[in-house]
Design a protein that fits this description.
With about 550 residues, this protein is of the alpha/beta class. It contains 15 helices and 21 strands.
Length: about 550
């Protein structure tokens, strides 16, 4: 890697990648590996060690802060992008996410053919993410599991064999910095903002990109054979909204640009009480033969999702709400007290995750302190051991799950959203600031409620257990709406489709109306699945590097 000052540029590059998050780094490294005689330029707004306070995040306006995190809680600027605070969960999209369903209201603008085209690249993506083998389904003969999530459970309407895999978590900037430095055909420029693309010619080719230095505001031009925008959903969308001239070969810019913005509904409204032996419940993390952390979760089968017209959801076993001392656990109260302590709390978890644990408030401190005292010495020993495994070893314990001898666990849901045209990112009247309009539809909330009912019915049918709701029936929907908050799992605003009438990029991630401009970001994902978009975006980055 050559780190370029802004006054030193080659006359031309084969590929210019805008953004050095996981997608941008995977794309640049994989393309450079496959094309050793080609020159790659990687542009990054932040610095090599990261940049916190910045003009881009300062110019984002969130219309609904109840359900959407503020920009500094959602993204990071600098080499490695948002992977600097990423938890490491790697989840593959499901087949049902590529199938048109009534509930997504025409929003499924990709197909199963694309999923088939992506599968050959899963292994390479897993290598970049350091999450083991590309296996996201447990087989019944896996010797490192007990066979089922709980005693008596049988798969049918509900599955327990779909798993999430966990990265180191891999901080892409730190992890791949040396590979970048060792590369002979990758150059990196820090502290620059992509500003203006040249208008494409009739052949659809864009000749140059105007870039602005962050500190001096000086502008200069970059020439490249191909350009890829991999700047994350927010900045990718803002850049295209500001550069609608790239669609000059179309009748008009795609109507979907900036629209159909999606994330997830996430939270807890119930617990599960299993009836079998608590020691046979796989409540926490497993390790596969490669020493990779893996975790089971409940998911509805594809058939049930289609028959019941439901959004895709995952539900996993979790701890009770940390902030409410009614749980009686000295260890959980100790974790809560640490999270609300200034300085210490900010070191333990990113702001968005910390907020989900503490609910952003100091609550019933005397009761928490009493939990710690009556639970001694376990209240201190358990957090100390977990702290060591989570912060002092190379492959870190990704999450904290505590054994419950009563075989009762909170259920954490993570659910897809309807691709709504009204959920959108748009430029403000100054043509620069980015406005985010984001909320949850009634269909989103209702799907979460019905999914819990189907899970409860199935567990009772198996004789395995039952659900216990935390709220009266009349309050459940409001609790889902009030407590769900996203903005960290951004997708949909430059979605992939078979025509510019319904999307912004084609199945090869090429911007409609252009020949040499591509997008590689979670923004191209038309549906949000039950999965966070990071891993799937990485798969698309490997595929794009191989195809261009």
């Amino acid at each position: 890697m050559t780190i370029l000052p802004v006054n030193i540029l080659k006359s031309d590059y084969d590929l210019c990648v805008i953004g050095s998050g996981p997608a941008g780094l995977i794309l640049a490294l994989e393309y450079a590996r496959l094309n050793k005689n080609h020159q790659v330029l990687l542009l990054e707004y932040g610095d090599e060690q990261g940049t916190h306070k910045n003009d881009l995040d300062d110019s984002i306006l969130v219309a609904n802060p109840l359900n959407h995190h503020e920009p500094y809680e959602c993204t990071n600027k600098g080499l490695g992008g948002t992977s600097a605070t990423w938890g490491g969960r790697c989840v593959m999209y499901d087949e049902v996410d590529f199938i048109e369903r009534e509930i997504v209201q025409g929003g499924c603008t990709w197909s199963l053919d694309l999923l088939a085209e992506c599968k050959p690249y899963l292994g390479i993506a897993c290598e970049y993410f350091e999450c083991g083998q590309p296996e996201f389904q447990l087989s019944s003969g896996s010797p490192w599991t007990r066979g089922r999530i709980a005693e008596g459970f049988v798969e049918g309407d509900i599955l327990d064999s779909v798993v999430e895999r966990w990265s180191m978590p891999t901080r892409f900037g730190r992890r791949y910095s040396q590979e970048l430095h060792d590369s002979n055909n990758i150059s990196v420029m820090f502290g620059v903002e992509a500003r203006t693309f040249a208008t494409p010619g009739k052949d659809g080719n864009i000749g140059s990109l105007t870039v602005r230095e962050r500190s001096s505001k000086r502008e200069f031009s970059i020439n490249a054979g191909k350009f890829v925008i991999a700047a994350g959903t927010q900045e990718t969308t803002r850049l295209l909204l500001r550069n609608t001239q790239v669609f000059s070969n179309l009748d008009s810019p795609p109507d979907s640009l900036g629209r159909y913005y999606q994330g997830h509904l996430s939270g807890k409204i119930a617990s599960v009480q299993f009836h079998g032996d608590p020691k046979k419940t796989e409540y926490g993390l497993l390790k596969d033969p490669d020493n990779i952390y893996v975790r089971r979760r409940f998911q509805l089968s594809t058939e049930v999702l289609k028959q019941q017209n439901l959004l895709n959801s995952a539900i996993w076993l979790d701890n009770p709400l940390y902030h409410d001392p009614i749980h009686g656990s000295g260890a959980l109260s100790m974790f809560y007290l640490a999270m609300i302590t200034p300085v210490i709390g900010s070191k333990l978890a990113p702001r968005a995750i910390a907020n989900s644990i503490t609910k952003g408030k100091i609550y019933k401190l005397p009761q928490h302190i009493w939990n710690v005292i009556k639970g001694l010495p376990v209240s201190v020993i358990t957090p100390a051991l977990i702290f060591y495994r989570r912060y002092c070893v190379e492959r870190k314990l990704p999450q904290i799950f505590l054994y419950n001898p009563q075989n009762r666990y909170a259920l954490h849901f993570h659910s897809e959203q309807v691709p709504s045209r009204e959920n959108r990112m748009q430029l403000a009247s100054d043509g620069e600031s980015l406005e985010i309009h984001y909320s949850y539809a009634d269909e989103d909330v209702e799907s979460v409620v019905r999914t819990h009912k189907i899970l409860d019915d199935w567990l009772q049918k198996c004789g395995c257990g039952h659900l216990e709701y935390w709220y009266p029936p009349g309050e459940v929907r409001n609790q889902i709406r009030q407590n769900s908050k996203d903005g960290v799992h951004q997708s949909g605003t430059t979605r992939m489709a078979d025509s510019p009438d319904s999307g912004v990029v084609d199945r090869n991630l090429r911007v409609w109306g252009c020949q040499n401009l591509f997008v590689c970001s979670g923004s191209v994902l038309p549906t949000s699945s039950q999965a966070n978009p990071t891993f799937m975006t990485g798969v698309l980055a490997v595929r794009l590097a191989n195809n261009i």
